[in-house]
Specification:
alpha/beta; 5 strands; about 50% helix; globular
């Protein structure tokens, strides 16, 4: 059975690109257009991996990521962040939020800046599954 991967991105073109890449590589992608829908689908479908955009309307990827890591049923689900935001800026914002909220949220399994190269994304996906095996 193909592993379920939840793709959360507000850009239709990016969702289509990533889900098509995953589907043609033997995975079962599920897509959400924002963090609210993404959290709903994550709780309902329990995906094996989540690929998450950072900058989205409604619930941002940063908030969704923090919610995932605090949810007992989803906290161990690997997450790959996929964003136009630089990796350095994302990690800085996580550090500031950790200090402000008094939390220690773990780093995502991978961070890939857009646009992703197909090989780079698939390598990160496969690496997540190797770690969880």
């Amino acid at each position: 059975m193909a592993k379920k991967i939840l793709v959360v991105d507000d850009e239709l073109d990016m969702r289509t690109y990533v889900t098509t890449l995953l589907e043609t590589s033997g995975f079962h992608p599920i897509a959400a257009k924002d963090g609210v829908q993404g959290l709903e689908l994550a709780r309902k479908n329990k995906p094996a991996l989540i690929i998450l955009d950072v900058m989205m309307p409604m619930e941002s990827g940063i908030n969704m990521y923090r919610e995932l890591k605090k949810d007992p049923s989803l906290k161990d689900t690997p997450v790959i962040m996929l964003s136009g935001l630089s990796k350095k800026t994302f990690y800085h914002s996580q550090k500031v939020l950790d200090e402000y909220k008094g939390e220690q949220i773990p780093e995502p399994q991978a961070y890939i800046e857009k646009p992703p190269e197909p090989d780079e994304l698939l390598m990160a996906v496969n690496k997540c599954f190797e770690k969880s095996a």
